[in-house]
Fold this sequence. Notes:
The protein is of the alpha+beta class. Helix content is 32%, strand content 15%. It is an enzyme of class 1 (oxidoreductase). GO terms for molecular function: 2 iron, 2 sulfur cluster binding; isoquinoline 1-oxidoreductase activity; metal ion binding.
Amino acid sequence: MALSLTVNGQHYSLDVELDTPLLWVLRDELKLKGTKFGCGAGLCGACTVHVNGQPTRSCSTPVEYLDGAEITTIEGLSENGELHPLQKAWVAEGVPQCGYCQSGQIMTAAHLLANTPSPSRDEIVTAMSGNLCRCGTYSRIVAAVESVVD
Ligand code: FES
């Protein structure tokens, strides 16, 4: 299938199988390794990217539905060489432990703040509840998101 995608503002024309999950197009075809494979079943959130502005589990999203889509990955959050405020907060709060799930965590948090600039603690916890962290960094994740809230 000839697939047209815009990823982090760059246009790509790719020849891939219809049932290829977006995750593998990002990692294997485009070499964007920041998006991680966790459960592979849409359950953990490690593979979260934005598709047309919506947080999406790329491991369980076949590209056949994505022709013409705009994708943002963790690599696309920074602008002009400057980290996204959430990325700076992650560093300042020392959020990551093993770090594996954190790109998905940040992408989910970025969607929350893009749509709810001043979320309450409950809204943050609810929004982040679908992203699992085996190291249990949840309290630092909430603190990092709260630190960038207006
Ligand atoms: Fe996609 Fe777990 S790897 S949700």
